[in-house]
Amino acid sequence: MYLTELSVIKVLTKLREHISHFSIDYMAEEVVALSTGNQPTTSFVERFAQMGAPWRFGINDLEGLLEEAVMKVVDDVTTAHLYRTYWPRQPLDANIYEHYSLCTLAPTAS
């Protein structure tokens, strides 16, 4: 979230050269663009910017981004899905979980 798209591609490419599998977390584009329509989510992101840590890059097309970095998705899941799976009786109060994902990546076979 804190890097630009170009920086993200550079980091992924460097990691690909040295690590067989790794995990990243990412936020959807609409969260970074403050366009989820959910005020608590927007306020959360705005607070980071006010602290000097603006979010610069969100991902909605993970496959497209990974094509440039010559990577593939091993696993990709939203934190909302994990929340519902492992805490099924707990209410999911925060909309941001729908837009925050964790994924495992691996180099694409050449």
Q: Would you summarize the structure shown here?
A:
The chain has five helices and three strands, in the order H-E-H-H-H-E-H-E. With 110 residues, it is α+β, with helices and mostly antiparallel strands. Helix 1 packs across helix 4.
Would you write up a description of this structure?
With 110 residues, the chain is of the alpha+beta class. The protein has one domain. The chain is 42% helix and 20% strand. It has a three-stranded antiparallel sheet. Helix 1 packs across helix 4 (62-69). It is globular. The mean pLDDT is 94.
Q: Keywords for this structure?
A:
alpha+beta, three-stranded antiparallel beta sheet, 110 residues, globular
Secondary structure layout plus pairing:
Elements: H1 5-18, E1 22-27, H2 29-32, H3 39-50, H4 62-69, E2 71-78, H5 79-86, E3 100-107
Antiparallel strand pairs: 1-3, 2-3
Helix pairs in contact: 1-4
Number of helices: 5
- Unreliable segments of 5+ consecutive residues: none
The biggest beta sheet is recorded as: 3 strands, antiparallel
Structural class: alpha+beta
Query: In what order do the strands lie side by side in the largest sheet?
Result: 1-3-2
Give the number of DSSP strands. Answer: 3
